[in-house]
């Protein structure tokens, strides 16, 4: 048993060093790119600011978040690469919707499992995210075609008049992909917040029924819903304050503003994100209550033997084993094999 503990500790230590070196390598690569670009005439120095901000973010996340802060920054790098790859594939005339859905699945997996590990609450958040995304896809697909918000607005014609518009990309599918990508972050955040809270309720009251656990999840979610919706709203206002002022300088009436393509597309995006945040609440509460209670029944039926405990410790490196701990409680808390 002691050898297993030492092996788990060494593996975790190697994992932390690997993530730290990857993050530092990424920041160093940004500096190399900026240095090479700075040698060219006419290149702005804006990337210096990006590198400094990224370095400050990494240091703060490392100091405040410790290991999880490093994991979060590491997942941020991977998600950036996923989005960049998706954009490159779409630019090569692949189906934007298919590429976006695959990218969202990868982003969900990386964002959840890299930071939280293989835990029942993580599985619950992941499956809730995918189910919500599947339900919203058909609604967004219909809205994308019915609202006719694809392409460029009239206000942008002067800026793009010198460029060719024959780029071989379906703009309707592109706006659908944009809306899907804009809501994935919000529903992931809501899902893991709900499942983590419900997991804490379950750990403090293992005898709770599935219905009571579901109701507790809904009660917790009401507070999350209000703050998340406001976060989405103020993110829109802050990001498009210049757009609103520009439309006002054009002396547009209120009716013209809310019917303009450039404004309407952003409003639809923020409403779809809010709809996703609302819809994922009962889905996450239901899936989390099912997985946690099923995990408890599985652990009890499995006999809680020492062999099973040793297997769980090997498959879940975040679990610290103590011979004096109650094996029944440990089997309930951790485990990768979810029926």
Q: What is the number of helical segments per DSSP (H or I, 4+ residues)?
A: 12
Run of helices and strands: HHHHHHHHHHHH
Q: What is the mean predicted local confidence, pLDDT?
A: 75
Q: What's the helical proportion of residues?
A: over 70%
pLDDT below 50 for ≥5 consecutive residues: which ranges? 7-11, 298-339
Largest β sheet strand count, sense and barrel closure: none
Tally the beta strands: 0
Instruction: State the assembly state of the protein chains.
Output: single chain
Shape: globular
CATH topology of the domain at 96-302: Multidrug efflux transporter AcrB transmembrane fold
Q: State the name of the first-level CATH class of the domain at 96-302.
A: Mainly Alpha
By CATH, the architecture of the domain at 96-302 is named: Up-down Bundle
Instruction: Note the beta-strand portion.
Output: under 5%
As a whole number of angstroms, the C-alpha radius of gyration is: 24 Å
User: How far apart are the first and last residues' alpha carbons, in Å?
Assistant: 27 Å
Classification by helices and strands:
mainly alpha
Protein name: YibE/F-like protein
Organism: Anaerocolumna jejuensis DSM 15929
InterPro entries: YibE_F
Transmembrane segments: 48-65, 72-91, 97-115, 122-143, 163-188, 231-247, 267-293
Write a compact overview of the structure shown.
The chain is mainly alpha-helical.
